[in-house]
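Board notes (copied after class):
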Amino acid sequence: MTPEQKQQQIEFIKRSEKILGFNAGEMARALFVDYDTYGKWRRGQRELKAAPTTSIRMLVVMKICNAAKEDAFTMWTNQIQP
């Protein structure tokens, strides 16, 4: 992971925590991962792979849809189209 990728990962996680209103422990539980693993992702000590990245994005989309009273599936598919 390059230094830029590491910083992007850290920012992505922190921004997602803020949107969701979760602390690190709550995010680890929501992702069904060990707190230490999540902490390593959060500090950029371990690369965040595709599956947990997608899970975080889905949690954020569901939160936004719930707040906006929109259909999560439609918002998700619109977001992933090129």
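Comment from the instructor: The longest helix spans residues 50-68. The chain is about 75% helix and 0% strand.
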